[in-house]
Design goal:
8 strands, TIM Barrel, 281 residues, alpha/beta, 8-stranded parallel sheet
Length: 281
């Protein structure tokens, strides 16, 4: 596989009767999710370092080919400078290796306070990480999107074969309404720079709850993703909606946009299961 698609979480009861059969028990959410979608963000690892037993359970609950893209622990990324936390970062990444071949790139999500003046600190952290660990950096300080900082960041990531997380929040800021008004952690309004800095990329698409408001953005992305896949890039696509109950429907819509763009992607496992059920009856 060179293309993975999923949501930001798997433990969401609001998906019962949709993504999950209505009788699915919470302890079976991950097993069910991983047989319908092909990847998931690891938000849980941002708040705590999972025990090895927990990570082994995640690995054993998911099929071959499934990928977790966990976020680096916030005590590394949200306590000021990164380099002083390098020992902890190495410990976390080593712990995540328990996921085995289910482990995708680790996301280093930086806070809005971490700006281009700390570029050297970011380089020190990347230098300290194992050469065989795939990581992707997400920046949120607006000055990272202004020259010369934008090019300096891209060049740094390229030198270390680190990806750049492409956070697209444009759909939720496309009108006068505020679909994030009930969100505990609203996504920032930032420019989008679709740049590839590694053999893989991670796209985090924040959809508007109104499906029709996303169609033109999804179509544009589908053309770009199709081109990257044709060029041999690995692509991880995560679709999130401020109204979490709608995220799986947004994943389906995005997948359909990719199919319409003739992107070289496999069918959704979710769709294959639906077809098998229909053929059974």
């Amino acid at each position: 596989m060179t293309f993975w698609i999923g949501c930001a979480v798997w433990a969401y009861k609001g998906w019962l009767g949709g993504l999950y059969p209505r009788q699915t028990k919470p302890q079976d959410f991950l097993r069910t999710y991983s047989r319908r979608l092909t990847a998931v963000e690891g938000n849980a690892t941002f708040y705590t370092i999972p025990a090895e037993k927990t990570l082994a359970q995640w690995r054993n609950s998911t099929p071959e080919g499934f990928r977790f893209c966990p976020k680096l622990f916030r005590d590394v990324t949200h306590q000021g400078a990164l380099h002083p936390q390098r020992t902890l970062a190495l410990e976390v990444i080593d712990r995540l290796r328990v996921l085995g071949d289910r482990l995708g790139p680790v996301m280093i999500q930086l806070p809005p306070s971490y700006g281009p003046d700390q570029l050297g600190d970011l380089e020190l952290l990347l230098q300290a990480l194992p050469s065989d660990s795939a990581v992707a950096v997400e920046v949120r300080h607006p000055n990272w999107f202004i020259q010369p900082a934008a090019d300096q960041l891209n060049q740094l990531l390229q030198r270390h074969q680190a990806g750049r997380v492409l956070l697209d929040t444009q759909p939720i800021y496309s009108g006068s309404d505020n679909p994030q008004q009930l969100s505990e952690r609203p996504k920032p309004r930032l420019p989008l720079q679709p740049v590839i800095t590694a053999p893989f990329t991670i796209i985090r698409y924040i959809s508007h709850p109104d499906l029709h408001r996303n169609q033109s953005d999804m179509a544009r992305w589908a053309t770009q993703i199709s081109a990257w896949l044709t060029q041999g890039q690995d692509v991880y696509l995560f679709v999130h909606c401020p109204q979490e109950a709608q995220s799986p429907a947004m994943v389906e819509a995005f997948h359909q946009a990719l199919v319409s763009a003739d992107a070289p992607i496999p069918p959704l496992p979710w769709h294959l299961q639906q077809e098998e059920q229909l053929s059974f009856f």
